[in-house]
TrEMBL record:
The keyword Magnesium does not apply. The lineage of its organism: Eukaryota, Viridiplantae, Streptophyta, Embryophyta, Tracheophyta. Belongs to the complex I NDUFA1 subunit family. Accessory subunit of the mitochondrial membrane respiratory chain NADH dehydrogenase (Complex I), that is believed not to be involved in catalysis. Complex I functions in the transfer of electrons from NADH to the respiratory chain. The immediate electron acceptor for the enzyme is believed to be ubiquinone. InterPro entries: NADH_Ub_cplx-1_asu_su-1. It is found in: Mitochondrion inner membrane. This is NADH dehydrogenase [ubiquinone] 1 alpha subcomplex subunit 1.
Amino acid sequence: MGLVWLEAMLPLGIIAGMLCVMGNAQYHIHKAAHGRPKHIGNDVWDVAMEKRDKKIIEMLSSSPASN
């Protein structure tokens, strides 16, 4: 009677394992599609900063080097 809880561990382990597999699959698919991991909590401010940073990097890379 003491090991009855062990019967529940196999299905719970399978469920937990499949949740991990699905999460990892989602992570790798997104990373393959976009080239970087997903940004969690991406709001309007983050999007504006990404656009600004991209614009600055493009401006700096297109300007001639001043050596």
